[in-house]
Structure formats: structure tokens, C-alpha cells
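Appendix B, example 12.
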Amino acid sequence: MMKKHIPQILLILFFLSPLNIFASGAEGSEHTLPNPIMVIPFAVLLLMIATGPLFYHHFWERNYPKIALALGSVTVIYYLVFLNDTHSLLHTLAEYISFIALLSSLFVASGGILIKVDKKSTPMLNVLILLFGAVISNIIGTTGASMLLIRPYIKVNKNRIKPYHIIFFIFAVSNIGGALDPIGDPPLFLGFLRGIGFFWFIEHIILVWAPTLIVLMAIFYVIDSRNKGEEVPDAQYSGKIEFKGGKNVIYLAIILLSVFIDPGILKWVPSLAPLPFGIREIIMFSVAYFSFKSADKKILEANEFDFEPIREVAYLFIGIFATMIPALQLIAYESKVYGQELSPGVFYWATGVLSAILDNAPTFLNFLSAALGKYGMDVNVKEQVFQFSLTYPIYVQAISIAAVFFGAMTYIGNGPNFMVKSICERAGIKMPSFFGYLMKYSIPILLPIFFVIWLIVFYGKV
């Protein structure tokens, strides 16, 4: 199974290799802003992700890797040839490798764990599973929680599974749940690296987090109560919860501990610069390999495990990471220019809307930098970031909540969203299109909730 994907992995590495070849070591230097027209490749990729599965499904399924790499190459060539900016490319490459190392290691390690819930599917049982996933997403990350629970969640509901089951799973477990600490979601981890206290997030976000989940679960309960599903005559349930693959829990623990093996956190950790990865990523990829090689094959078969979901994420997000570089740089520039005029409410909506279609981690960092700039502080000085989070918590709160919550608005808002979608489609669940997800679920359900959050917490605040 692993050997089958070696050529594809080599193709990705080939696509990335020019970044190292042309690296000039211009760390931290200023570069010319990209021409706004260079946002077009990102817009095209986003449009094709949205329309491909709907209007030209077979062409898209066969060619999405080539399309993502081709559009990403346009941006890479532009930065190399026209801007002579290798720093931005290397920085993005490092972020992508860190992103895919975490997702792939959690995906593979959780695939070797089998959870069987032998209970009758009911709205209340589903609510409890979703709330459990939301809580543990702060312990093992939104990706870890999503990969651990999505398969048993599907099997519990096998006789009444509908797309809304998966959409609410993405809402609660893959996104909103992980807003209470830096382990939960990458933007918060970046904030922690920059100087925000580890427990700052739970202290300032839980009073928004808890009501949001309660409202979300209430809506889900009402919808799920109307779903009678298919009755199974004489079905017997033991009420037991079976757990197999305990050794993979150790692998999950290693992955989570390795998150903190960073020179920015632990001074004794050596940097591997100028390589675009560190010891953390080496550990994560190693865990992915060894956890797969040592996994119980019966568990993998029971989980219907294969590499297609992570393969799809790897290809699409390398295109997304590359093509969004110009958009992020232009946003960063504009947010600093107009930073003095931005209120917490504006930061909330700007961070949220852009986190729904761009990677929420750099979006979070850009707006955090702009917020600090309002008060003459520097996001690169830990002491100033720490002081800012204590003195002006409303700004950090707005940016943090928006970056995590709005990731649920689209399939590409957060890495686990696409993985969950892919796993479900391979299990035979017909998932809504990109636009269907937006128009039927996220806009009518999430947007009103997010509007109320803005109205209660951030409206009129300065």
C-alpha cells in the first residue's frame, strides 16, 4: 500500500526541490509585494475545487494532482524569476511540510485504532459523540480527534447516515472544538510560539466556546430527531464500547509530544536550518511509517484504511499553500497599513472570512501582527506579545475565535475537513459539493451563530 504511493511522493518532492536549490538565505529580508494579478492562480484553484466534483467529476478525479501542481508552479516560478524571493517560498515550504507531517502522522496512527460502539444510533448518542470529540480535540488536536472518531461515528449511524451527520462532525470536532489550547488548532499554536500563554486561550475563549457548542448541538439534535432511518428488525445491541490497537495510542502520544520539539520552545532542540523541516517533522513522518508497518492488518481492514484521503489533501494543499502566498502577503500589507482603523469586530470578521478560504494559521498571524502594530508592538518579540494578550485581550480573542471557528465554513478552511470528506465519500456517503456545503449548511447554520458572537462579544468594542 505504501509502495504504491512512492512515485506520487517523489513527484511532490520534485515539485518542492527547486525551493532548496535556489535558497539564498535571505531570512527576514524585505521583498517586493506581488502583483495583485498573481492572486488569480489561487482563485482558479479554489473555483476548480468547488466546481470540479460537481460539473466535471471524472476529469477532476483523474487530474486534480496535476492541476494543483501546475497552478502552484505558476506562483513558484513567479517568485523565483520575477521577484527573486526565495525566502517566502522556503517559509511556505516549511509550513507545508509541518502541516502535512502532522496530518499524515495522525491519519496513519489513528487508522490503526479500532473503536466499536455497539449501541443503537440515537440523537442523544450522536450529540455525546460530537461533544466528546470536541473536548478531546483540545488534547489530541482537531485532526487527531477527527481521524480517531469519524469511522466509529459512521458505523454507529450506518442505518441512518446522512450528509448532515458529517457536516456537524466537521463543525464541532474538526474545527470549533479545538479552540481552547494551542494543541487544538495550528493558529493557536502559532500564538503560543509567539508568546501567548498556554492557558490564555481556555481562560478567554471557553465562555464563547461552550455556548456555541451547546447551540450547535441543539440544532443538530432537532435535525437528527427527525431522521428515523432504516429500522433493523430484531437488532440486538450489547451496549459495549470496544477499543483495539492500544499501541497506536502510544504513537499518538509521541506525535503530540513532538509538536513541542521546536527550537522556539525548547532551546536545547537543534535547528536543521537551512532545511525546511526540523526534528519534529522527522519524528512525525517516522511515526507514520512505523505505526503503519506495525499496525494490525485486521484493524486496517475493519477501518477500510487506505492512503487516498491523505493523498488528496497532500496534493490539493500543496497547490493551496503555494498559490495563496501572494494573497497572504497583500493581506498582511493592507492590514498593517489600515491597522490603526481596525476594531476588534473588524479583526473578527476579516480573520474569519479569510480563514474560511485561506490557511487559518498565517491569517491569524497576519492579523495578530496588525493588532500589535496598533499599539507600537512587534509580533516577533515574545514579551510584547505576552503583554499585549494581557493588556488588550479583546483583540487576541477576536482573532483566535475567528481563525478557529470560521475554519468550519468550507471544506478547505481546515485540513481535517477535507480528510473527513474524503473518508466519508470512500465509505459511500454522498457529500455535498463545495457550494452545497456553503449554501445548505455553513451559511444558514454557522453564520447566524457567528453573527451573534460578534454582536455580544465584539460589537462596539475598541
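The chain has one domain: 38-56+64-458. Residues 1-29 have pLDDT under 50 and may be disordered.
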